[in-house]
TrEMBL record:
Region (Disordered), start-end ranges: 110-157
Protein name: DUF736 domain-containing protein
Pfam families reported for this sequence: DUF736 (PF05284)
Length: 157
């Protein structure tokens, strides 16, 4: 989704980023001069409420794996924002940049596969689905056998 643009204007790369909750109407890209190969290519700067220019993000050069296209990738971040806004800029200094945003893929979830008797996580393939023995008897009441009975013997109340 495109959320902004940057263009060359009087020797400076200036632009804006806007979403439903964020409006950054006056942004600029300042080239970073560094020998460090991990340094960003640009700092994203903006005036704060007092008019002072502050850094609100950074961009690194990246290459698309499938097409070989060179683009800028980074984020806009500020203590006033709930979280960083990941962005990518496509284009060039001469033709201008389009600012794109994409929701990052989450990698903190396990596979989206529900356990069945065939792929149950227990070692006995479907007997207990990894949760142990039931504490209910055949009628659904609390069993005097199994895990609950063992626990009663071990823990004095």
């Amino acid at each position: 989704m495109n959320i902004g643009e940057f263009n060359l204007n009087k020797g400076r790369i200036i632009g804006w980023i806007a979403t439903r909750a964020i409006d950054l109407p006056k942004l600029a890209l300042r080239p970073v001069e560094s020998e460090n190969e991990l340094a960003p290519a640009y700092e994203i700067i903006a005036p704060n409420v007092g008019g002072r220019v502050v850094q609100v993000g950074a961009l690194w050069e990246a290459v698309a794996k499938k097409t070989g296209e060179v683009f800028l990738q980074g984020h806009v971040d500020d203590p006033s924002m709930p979280e960083a806004l990941p962005i990518a800029l496509f284009g060039s200094v001469e033709e201008g940049y389009r600012v794109a945003w994409r929701r990052p893929e989450r990698d903190d979830f396990g596979p989206a596969i529900r356990a069945t008797r065939d792929n149950a996580p227990s070692g006995n393939r479907g007997d207990d689905y990894g949760f142990g023995d039931s504490t209910a008897d055949e009628s659904g009441g609390l069993s005097s056998q199994g895990a609950a009975a063992d626990l009663d013997d071990e823990v004095a109340f």
